[in-house]
Amino acid sequence: MNIWVIVGLAAMATALILLPRLGWISVREAQDLIKSGALLVDVRSPGEFGGGSVPGAVNMPLGDIREQVDSGQISKNDPVILFCASGTRSSMAKRQLRGAGLTNVHNLGSYSRARQLQSD
Fold first, then answer.
1. Backbone angles phi, psi at 69, to 5 degrees
2. Is residue 30 annotated as a catalytic residue, yes or no?
3. I need a surface site. Which of 41, 43, 66, 117 has the fewest CB within 10 A?
């Protein structure tokens, strides 16, 4: 068997095991939520966002995310999907939003995963 096939299968198996443990949702789950009206939030800095993002995403930097709930920009009843450059800031944003009383908050993880939303 080709070594690259083995490496690819190992990477897929690792992703299937680790993604749920990281609290990340799959790209397919995110696509379904977006079709149902979920808010797609890019928590990267305005500079990062200005350099390119995913169509339909709104920029709410991590440092401002809690204020977005307090000001009504993010409704406590609406589903929210978060992403950032690597998944770290979106994980922190998820914790902040959960702490603010939101229950339907999902971490998509990295920007590279968010870009996959366009591919299907």
1. -70, -45
2. no
3. 66
Tell me which of 38, 74, 84, 97 is the catalytic residue: 84
Q: Domains plus CATH for the chain?
A: 23-118 (3.40.250.10)
Q: Which helix (H) or strand (E) holds 15?
A: helix 3-22
DSSP conformation class of 82:
E
The burial of 50, by beta-carbon neighbours within 10 Å (0-12 exposed, 13-18 middle, 19 or more buried), is given as exposed
Residue 119 to residue 92: CA distance in whole angstroms: 27
Contact 89, 95 (CB under 8 A): no
Query: Is the pLDDT confidence value at 120 over 60?
Result: no
Position 104 pLDDT exceeds 90:
yes
> What average pLDDT does the chain have?
88
